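Ticket 4471: requesting a sanity check on a complex prediction with iron/sulfur cluster. Repro inputs:
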Amino acid sequence: MTPLISPQAAIMFSGHNTNTFRFTEQELTQVDIIDLKKESCQYWQGIGEGKHRLRRGILKLEPIIMSDLKSDINTTSLLQSLRLDESSDDAKTVLGLVEEAMELAKPKAMFKEAFIDETGNDYVVIDGFRFKSRVLRVNLSEVHRVFPYVVTAGRELEEWSSGIDGMLEQYWADQIKEFILGTAYNDFIARLTAAYGLGTTASMNPGSLEDWPISEQRKLFSLIGDPLQGIGVELTDSCLMVPAKSISGIRYATEITYENCQLCSRENCPNRRAPYDPLLWEQRYK
Ligand code: SF4
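Returned structure tokens:
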């Protein structure tokens, strides 16, 4: 697996004495990954100081970029979802488009490790940013650490698809981008979960529920850092993401299964991941 932490993500600060320490984010948050016997007493004093500063919010962790996410496509599933016979001319055209897309695709993710400062009845403060959502507040009641993120299929694919003529071909290109985003997102989740030893995780996304409006995307982006500079994702005036084939949210470790779809009554949604539970709001969030 490619290392999660890049050298640029290292943090420097002065420790108790006049010594200057240099640690990676992983060292400050996952002590178990380093060889305990190798390190000096001063090193451990520095680690302690770093953790203390993180808890008090004096030290903020830098965002991390993954620029080598998987982008492969299961073409059988793609053709099935497009209702195309594998031997048809349309299928050949789609496979040609897949080839083009795969050559250009550079999906990326940007995320950071963040900590909950404060909670209220219907809000959560994460690294100084106040998010207003009762569902988010309840879902995060057992955790202290979260992972705000943006994953994108990338601008390269957006530019590629904007040059495609024909309504049908544009639709196929759109579905190809959707599949690439899905693969990249799953890869991001798998690598994040493995790197931080998270176990079962769930995600919440601003704009997917009335309880957490899309306008909160701005705060989410600010919390992560600068996704435009980092991975080329920006927000429109109405807080939609460009490129559109991007996913943003807050990921967290949890024992309780949660999907936004459980609270969403929209009928015939092609992306539904869990059945609507009309009693859940009353039972868990009221
Ligand atoms: S059912 Fe569809 S619209 Fe509703 S939260 Fe799930 S994916 Fe979003």
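Notes from triage: Residues 64-285 form a domain with the NADH Oxidase fold (CATH 3.40.109.40). Leaving this open until the requester confirms.
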